[in-house]
Amino acid sequence: MIHLLLGSLLLSLIHAAIPNHWLPVVAIGKAEEWTQRETLIVTAISGFAHTLSTILVGIAIGIVGISLSRNYAIFTEKIAPSLLIVIGIIYLLIGIRRHNHNHHNHLNASQPRSRAKAAIITTLALSMFLSPCLEIEAYYFQAAAAGWTGILLVSAVYVVITVGGMLLLVFLAGKGVKSIRSHFIDHHEKLLSGVVLIILGIIAFFVRF
Prior knowledge:
By secondary structure, the protein is mostly helical. It contains 8 helices and no strands. Helix 1 (2-16) runs antiparallel to helix 6 and helix 3 (36-71) packs parallel to helix 6. 39% of the residues are buried. The model is unreliable at 107-115 (pLDDT under 50).
């Protein structure tokens, strides 16, 4: 469980820090002259919409993983860790190849100021809902080795860290904190996620739930 906790925590932290998750809300809030409270509420709505779709897909993946782990011991011992490493390598290669571009496509910061507040919130929430995090989805295969406890643990950590991280960054941005520097994460998210997945996959070969 410590392995699952740390793994989901690392992936969620990287995920929450991506500017495309929270910076557009800050920009729109300023353009629409929202109060900080309103901006934080919209951030929470968008964050929960994003985590909801990710968890729904993750649970489906986890169910498949549970079924496989119950019937085939090799899935838990070899296949699940190997999948993490393979997916990690894929993300790593994408990150190396495209490190000068941001490919975690979520929100577009340019929104017409004339839109009604409800329409803006709906657009943001829908955009986030339709963009589940693929990096954490891969980790649900490994979580399935610990059954529903592992799936629920990963889901809980993901929601708390992602939404909490977005709220914290929006709050700091609203307070005028200029020291926030997420440029590196914004441009190297795939690379960082790939490295984390590879490390977790290697550890999983030696850790049994």
